[in-house]
Amino acid sequence: MEFAMSYEPTTRTVPTRARERASYDRELVHAILDEAYVCHLGFVRDGAPIVLPTLFARVGETLYVHGSTGSRPLRMTGEADPGLPVCLTVTHVDGLVLARSAFHHSLNYRSVVVHGTAHQVTDPAEKRAALDALVDHAIPGRSADSRPANAKELAATAVIRLDLAEVSAKTRTGGPNDDPSDLSLPHWAGVVPVAPAYGPAVPSADLPATTAVPAYVTSRA
User: Fold this and answer.
1) Which of 77, 79, 95, 218 could pair with 120 in a Cys bridge, judged by C-beta atoms 3.0 to 4.6 Å apart?
2) Spatial separation of the C-alpha atoms in residues 71 and 4, rounded to whole Å
3) pLDDT digits (tens, 9 = 90+) for 15-72
4) Is residue 137 included in any domain, yes or no?
5) 191: nearest Cα among 92, 103, 93
6) What is the CATH number of the domain that holds 58?
7) What is the rounded CA–CA span in Å between residue 118 and residue 15?
8) Given the DSSP bridges, would you call strands 190-193 and 157-163 parallel, antiparallel or unpaired?
């Protein structure tokens, strides 16, 4: 199935501020999502907003979100329910933007916001594939190099599905936007880059000393 190169903007995905930073480019949205490990899932429970950090993975135009079957919001997405309206977000901080004035300090960032209705994954084959995708999203290749979930573990794990339809990305790059009248001030201005760093793999204390570290792990360092 072919998709358009961009998502269609909606009233919920067009920002009220800095509209020039918004993008609906499908490739950019996918790249931002694929680089993130944690998403924040927002929904309303008992009339109050709730936001939960959790793991997720993208498979094509679908996001799979991991949780426990004992979690109330995930129970609200069951087959007997029409689904749970949610807002899912991810954000990367790429730099600290220091301006001459306190007002113009900012961040360089990349973010994605997804609106939609989440549904619980009940098909066993799709659920297993989604859980493999969640593992491989963190460390590609790991699902094939670990024991699959057994029946008890599958029963204790919930996965919800959220289609990528109402989506937008927002980014900021570049240096500070100082007012012309502030350019002569003596304060330092510029950008402090921020990037993730992976250290050497630390083996489990009960792992035999002869067990080699997989290449898909060492490639992260």
Assistant:
1) 77
2) 35
3) 888 788 899 999 999 999 999 999 999 999 889 999 999 999 999 999 999 876 666 5
4) yes
5) 93
6) 2.30.110.10
7) 23
8) unpaired
